[in-house]
Design a protein that fits this description.
The complex is a heterodimer of chains A (322) and B (537). Chain A is 76% helix and 0% strand. Chain A is built from 14 helices and no strands. In chain A, helix 6 packs across helix 8 and helix 8 packs across helix 10. Chain A starts with a helix and ends with a helix. In chain A, 38% of the residues are buried. With 537 residues, chain B is of the alpha+beta class. In chain B, 32% of the residues lie in helices and 18% in strands. Chain B contains 16 helices and 22 strands. In chain B, the strands form seven sheets. Chain B has a seven-stranded mixed sheet, with helices on both faces. Chain B has a four-stranded antiparallel sheet with strand order 4-5-7-6, covered by helices on one side. In chain B, strands 17-13-18 form a three-stranded antiparallel sheet, with helices on one face. Chain B is globular, with a radius of gyration of 28 Å. The relative contact order of chain B is 0.15. The chains are: A mainly alpha (322), B alpha+beta (537). At the A-B interface, helix 2, helix 3, helix 6, helix 7 and helix 11 of A face helix 1, helix 2 and helix 6 of B.
């Protein structure tokens, strides 16, 4: 079996183990929180003992903890993610499917926007280091990284949607009944916000590693041979410079996939982050588990892709595998 | 040698170009500050000029798609009107269902599904004659059987609904069908206010064999799409027995964040929003929208447990009530959007007396505290939370400031929203806050101050007062009842554990394209969600 394939399979196996551990920890942590779904549903009315007890029984919350966990786990093994506790008899997959699609499309948008821009900015900053361009982008990057995402979002909405121009919709209420292709304008401002959130990190990382590569001897050799600047940069330096940046990209994409709750709240965007916060507030274990497993799986897969890409791109590691 | 010298020169030059001087730092900081300050400036001068609004009494035009943004975002809401507690669920309940009775915009009782209602001499048997023109969304006519089924469903001991505690005096055997359009309620003991339980929105009528998976009611709108936590889409019920609906379709969208809700209104995604934060009123008006400012009987009192120190001494309670500068607290916590309170609840109850308006009197407060044995050394913890309402924490902080003037140290303890209502917290706090919507006096006492009330935060217990209230509950004659209520109110005014400092206004926002939007005293937003009365001008 080719060594790369073996590596991938081992990593996937470890990934499954990670997911199992995550589910155990999430279950334990949610149980430690005060309150339970019945209290969350009734709110202030939970003081009415009769209703509270009746609801607890209805929701099957009086079963022992290990039984609650194992019956859930047994379901997951056969692909049944269970039913939501607060929306009784409604499968978790029904409640999450649309939000999942929305968040995936949003992250894809943000990724397609941010990765090329960040690479371009990082590479050019490295080539023109210490120039006016470099110092301006440096300052902008730091400022944008320091601003919380929702502040960036508010400014964008003010500028493009309400106060100054009316070009974009002010909120992104994606309607699941309408095909996404007709609602793409709703994704623009949130995607730009997320893009602004991750570009500083990726571009700074790339700038640092590109500078290091550009000072190395083989690049000097390429220049001495008379190769053009572009060729030197993109064909010879970038494959090595991008290796550390791939990890940063993977981490940032996984962070985006976890759902940026503040951006979702600000734009009224029905995504995964809001669902997770709400499910935790409701102590709705099956929903919380499904979402946490999803996010953990995304982390595992994205990190795996980053590692495999690193190996494939950088010749040293490729030969080192054998 | 010359290469290195040139490199060094370049290096020094580049350092000089990018050196962050104090001047350039200040320049950048100023630019950042301008950017931050730009926001409110832009908001204030942006948007179209305020449009001259068409007459509010414009004749209702038929048609249109009404979109409304409300507070929400939690997936735990269902379409079961009888369990309505959260704002989104209350909103959908008003669209899908009706109760036997209801409240009009001035908080006067009106018949809904009932054509007439009456009680016998001692208010132990209530009789309701139903309208004969009501059909459910599936075309089936409403009859007495449905009413009996609905009430039995509410008080079902295996799964009691939200209104069950107000129907505590009604046994299952007491719900009797007399004929196809008449129902009688035989109570275990007399209750003059049983009609208020019949008017509660959560005691709504559903058809026999009601199935939550396909909810059917008598209300002005039928459910089309149900996405809890996100949005609901309704179609107009063309066979509705009451006024309207004038629009063809209704979409209710939930927004957890106030900024998103306001943006949705300003950007034209929705035509009306609920719970407009007071701070955003100017923004909304500047954006060409209108503000619905309704005076209500809703209140967010400070609650003092009369069975625990230091509040077991009535003088301490009276002193605390005198420490409050009520108008000042309204200006700070409600941005002026509130009516002044006089330590009595149920402002719209005809029995509530006009007593001397309490004002801040720090000298008297200090003197009372001294008599009670506290000489400038009293320290209490005030439990508050965002879960009570948006202004609650602000009010708590204002109270702490005002209390200093009387030598009392108030430690404001902000409890997490998820934990505030937990058993062991809520109803156990010595000194805290709570929120209530508009209710008349006897209803309110059944919920908050009678011995078996579910939400007795102050642990109020007073034999003399209790006897008066129980007698009022049995009195059918309105004039006599009002006298008794006035007596009971006076006792609470003198000795009670509540500090009722204000009745908050309900502030919502809506587009000038809408008509039929009127203030409602119940405290429920957007004309108590009576969207059947809204129309496009």
């Amino acid at each position: 079996m080719p060594p790369l394939l073996k590596l991938i399979l081992i990593r996937l196996g470890l990934g499954v183990l990670t997911l199992f551990l995550v589910s155990l920890i999430v279950f334990a942590a949610t149980q430690l929180l005060p309150g339970d779904p019945a209290q969350a549903i009734l709110g202030k009315d939970a003081a009415d003992k009769a209703r509270y007890e009746a609801l607890r029984q209805q929701l099957q919350l009086d079963r022992p903890l290990y039984e609650q966990y194992t019956s859930w786990l047994a379901g997951v093994m056969v692909g049944d993610m269970g039913n939501s506790i607060v929306q009784q008899d409604v499968p978790v997959t029904d409640l999450l499917a649309d939000r999942l699609i929305n968040s995936t499309v949003l992250v894809l948008f943000a990724a397609l926007l941010s990765i090329p821009i960040a690479i371009l900015i990082g590479a050019l900053s490295a080539v023109w280091r210490d120039s006016r361009f470099d110092s301006t982008t440096n300052l902008t990057n730091l400022t944008l990284a320091a601003l919380p995402e929702f502040v960036v979002g508010i400014l964008l909405v003010l500028f493009f949607a309400t106060a100054v121009f009316n070009w974009m919709p002010a909120v992104s209420r994606v309607d699941s009944e309408v095909p996404l292709s007709q609602q793409l304008d709703l994704f623009v401002l949130p995607a730009i916000t997320l893009c602004i959130a991750v570009v500083p990190y990726i571009s700074r990382m790339l700038r640092a590693s590109t500078i290091e590569v550009l000072e190395s001897e083989y690049v000097m050799m390429a220049r001495l041979k008379g190769l053009s600047g572009n060729l030197v940069l993109w064909r010879h330096s970038m494959p090595n410079a991008i290796v550390p940046t791939l990890q940063v990209i993977a981490l940032n994409l996984a962070w985006l996939a976890g759902g940026i709750v503040t951006v979702e709240y600000l734009f009224g965007f029905p995504g995964v982050g809001q669902a997770l916060v709400d499910s935790v507030a409701n102590r709705d274990i099956p929903m919380v588990q499904a979402l946490c497993l999803l996010i953990a799986a995304v982390y595992v897969v994205l990190n795996l892709i980053a590692d495999v890409a690193t190996i494939l791109i950088s010749p040293r590691l490729r030969t080192g595998l054998r | 040698m010359s290469d290195e010298y040139r490199d060094l020169q370049n290096l020094l030059a580049s350092m000089g170009n990018t050196r962050l001087t104090r001047r350039s730092l200040l320049k950048y900081a100023a630019a950042g500050g301008v950017l931050a300050g730009l926001g409110p400036l832009v908001a204030a001068c942006g948007g179209s000029e305020p449009t001259t609004s068409p007459s509010a009494a414009g004749s209702p035009k038929q048609g249109g798609n009404l979109r409304v943004g409300i507070v929400g975002g939690s997936a735990k809401d269902t379409l079961d009107g009888q369990t309505a507690t959260s704002e989104p669920q209350i909103c959908t309940t008003f669209q899908l269902y009706d109760a036997l009775l209801g409240w009009d915009a001035d908080y006067q009782m009106v018949p809904l599904l009932a054509a007439e209602w009456s009680a016998n001499a001692d208010a132990s048997v209530w009789s309701v004659k139903l309208r004969d023109d009501v059909v459910f969304h599936d075309g089936k006519p409403m009859t007495a059987d449905d009413v009996v089924y609905s009430y039995k469903r509410i008080i079902d001991p295996k799964s009691p609904k939200m209104g069950a505690s107000q129907l505590a005096l009604l046994p299952t055997s007491g719900i009797r069908k007399v004929d196809a359009s008449t129902v009688e309620f035989h109570l275990d003991s007399p209750s003059a206010i049983f009609e208020e339980a019949m008017a509660l929105y959560a005691n709504c009528i559903v058809p026999e064999g009601f199935d939550l998976k396909k909810p059917v009611g008598t209300g002005p709108f039928k459910i089309k799409t149900n996405k809890p936590g996100e949005q609901y889409v309704f179609d107009a019920n063309t066979e509705y027995w009451g006024d309207g609906p004038y629009v063809d379709q209704l979409t209710i969208m939930e927004f957890a964040d106030a900024t998103a809700r306001v943006n949705a209104l300003l950007g034209g995604t929705v035509e009306a929003i609920s719970q407009l934060p007071a701070a955003q009123v100017k923004v909304v008006e500047g954006g060409g929208m209108k503000v619905l400012n309704a005076e209500t009987g809703a209140w967010q009192p400070f609650t003092m447990r009369i069975d625990q120190k230091p509040f077991d001494d009535v003088r301490v309670r009276q002193a605390f009530r005198l420490m409050v500068d009520r108008q000042g607290m309204i200006d700070q916590a409600y941005a002026g959007f509130g009516g002044i309170g006089n330590d009595m609840y149920s402002p719209f109850d005809p029995g509530t007396p006009q007593l001397e308006q309490r004002a801040q009197d720090l000298e008297q407060a200090k003197s009372l505290l001294k008599q009670a044995g506290h000489d400038g050394d009293l320290e209490v913890t005030l439990n508050t939370s965002d879960a009570i309402g948006s202004a609650a924490v602000a009010a708590a902080q204002v109270f702490a400031e005002q209390a200093k003037g009387a030598g009392v140290t108030v430690n404001v303890k902000k409890v997490d929203s998820g934990a505030y209502w937990d058993a062991g917290n809520y109803l156990s706090y010595t000194f805290s806050q709570d929120f209530w919507y508009t209710r008349n006096y006897l209803s309110q006492t059944n919920q908050g101050t009678m011995p078996n009330a579910p939400y007795n935060e102050t642990h109020w217990k007073n034999e003399q007062w209790q006897a008066i209230v129980e007698e009022a509950m049995r009195t059918g004659d309105k004039a006599k009842r009002n006298e008794l209520i006035a007596e009971a109110q006076k006792i609470e005014y003198d000795e009670g554990g509540y500090i009722v400092w204000a009745f908050n206004n309900q502030i919502d926002g809506y587009s000038p394209k809408l008509g039929g939007v009127v203030p409602n005293k119940s405290g429920v937003p957007l004309s108590s969600f009576h969207f059947n009365n809204f129309f496009f001008v």
